[in-house]
Structures are given as structure tokens and as C-alpha cells.
Amino acid sequence: MQYCRKCNVKIRGRKECCPLCQSQLQEVEGNENPAFPTLERRKISNITFLKVCTFLFIASEIIFGTVNIMTNGEYSFIGPVMLGIFVAWIDVIATMYLRNNLIKVITFEVLVAIVVDYYVDIKTGFHGWSVQWMIPMTLIGLAIATILIAKVLKLRLDEYILYIVLDFVISLFQIIFIRNGMNTVPWPAVVSIMFYMILLAALVIFRFRDLKNASEKMFNI
């Protein structure tokens, strides 16, 4: 390290003269500190972690798929297990890329859970529990969780109101199960749809400006 007596400053690197006063520099003992702080590297980067998860997912699917083919589908649990592995992989990706939006993560998780439970219900002989109870109760719980999380995080209404609208649209799909006879206990589904209709009506009547602002932001109007 070099030192300028006139300016009373230490200078990094090798200079012929002081960059401030052009005086001769004197060599002094001491280690030079780096110009910028050194950041500690992560042991495993996000990309590496995602690659590892993807490899494990593909390897698992190949193994279970091979077993299923070689046994001519004798083990009925293999299908749900493969689906569960796929859902876990999707959850990892969603959590990594949506981790800054808790409401979006929970909404995605609930939609995945609905699809998985409906699939399991069909594969196990379809007893109707998924469309009769699980989906309606899950959708109502999703609306309550969305509002509570928004209150805890102190979010503005226009930051999460579109998620409630999306949940309402999803709840309307339950009408299909009722009309085609798959849902023989329609009251929970009807109550969940009614719940969302009342909630959406309140938002439109009392907070229409927030709904408008959120829509304009989403569609860049």
C-alpha cells in the first residue's frame, strides 16, 4: 500500500504519484482492503437446486413408470404416487418463483390440491367426496385465508381483489358437477358459490374503484 504525506491518505494499487496532489508516494506496510465488499457465495444456487429437484423428479417418474409397465398396472397406488411427485415438483417451482407473493402461492397450492383430490377420488372409484365436500370447503377456506393474509401483510385491496374474483370463477365450475349428477350432495357447493357471490357483490358495490384499478394494472390499460 502507498501513502501520501501531503494529503495524508492511503492509496490502493501501484501509482507513480498521488492522484490528488501529484506528490511522491511512500510505501507503507499493511494489507489492502478490497475496493468492494466480498459477498459470501451461496453453497447451492437457486438454479442448481432447481436442476437437482428436476433430476430427482424425472428419475422418480422413470422408475415408477417402468415398474407400472412391467407389472401391467398391477399396483394401483403407482399412479397417485407419480402424480404426487409431479405436484411436489410443481410446488417447488411455484414456491421459488412466487415466494414474494404469499397469496399467489396459496392460491396456486389450493388449485393443485383440488385437481389432485379430484383425480384421487376418480382413481379410487369416485365416491364423490372431492366434489361434495373437499372442493367447496377448500374454496371457502381460500377466500378467508386470502383476506386474513392481506390484513396481516397490510395489503391494499387492489393488490389482492383479483384473486377473489378468480376464486369466484373457479367456484362456478362446481355447477358442472351438480348438473351432470356427479355431486349428489350439492348444498356445500351451492353455499360456497353463494358465499363468493355475496362477497363479490360487496366488492363491486362498495369497492368498485379498487377492482377497476387492479384490472387496469393487470391489463395495462
What class, by secondary structure content? mainly alpha
Strand portion, in percent?
Answer: under 5%
Distance between the first and last residues' Cα: 58 Å
What is the mean pLDDT? 83
Number of strands: 3
User: Which residue ranges are poorly predicted, with pLDDT under 50 across at least 5 consecutive positions?
Assistant: none
Shape: flat
Largest sheet: 3 strands, antiparallel
Strand order of the largest sheet: 2-1-3
Radius of gyration: 30 Å
Number of continuous helical runs:
8
Helix content bin: 55-70%
Order of secondary-structure elements: EEEHHHHHHHH
Task: Lay out the secondary structure.
Blueprint: E1 2-4, E2 9-11, E3 26-27, H1 46-70, H2 78-97, H3 102-123, H4 129-152, H5 161-172, H6 174-179, H7 187-206, H8 208-219
Antiparallel strand pairs: 1-2, 1-3
Helix pairs in contact: 1-2, 2-3, 3-4, 4-5, 4-7, 5-7, 7-8
Question: Can you offer a commentary on this structure?
Answer:
Among the domains are: 1-39, no CATH class; 121-221. It contains eight helices and three strands. The protein is mainly alpha-helical and 221 residues long. Helix 4 (129-152) runs antiparallel to helix 5 (161-172) and helix 4 (129-152) packs parallel to helix 7. It is flat and about 95 Å long. The two termini are 58 Å apart. 64% of the residues lie in helices and 4% in strands. The model has no long low-confidence stretch (mean pLDDT 83). It has a three-stranded antiparallel sheet with strand order 2-1-3, with no helix packed on it. Strand 1 and strand 2 form a beta hairpin. The longest helix is centred in the N-terminal third of the chain and has 25 residues, at 46-70.
